[in-house]
User: What shape does this take?
Amino acid sequence: MSFGLCKPVQISDEFSDDCKKRNEEIELEIMKEMINNKRVVQILLLGTSDSGKSTIAKQMRSVFLDKILKFELVKSKRKINEK
Assistant: This one.
């Protein structure tokens, strides 16, 4: 019994080169994301109300971020105006 009809399909060199180039671009993007994700640390703060969760979060932001985000300033301004 012969399997002569089951030959792999030949892809043209031009198409193959495009695929290789796109594959390299994707691999590079994946490596960049992996490097960026190594820097991300997520922390879950648990506790009852008035236990200092937001205080710890604010202190960590002030220590680890160089500048306060504009969004946080607007958010804080709203909270102050509500009180």
Remarks:
- Residues 42-83 form one domain.
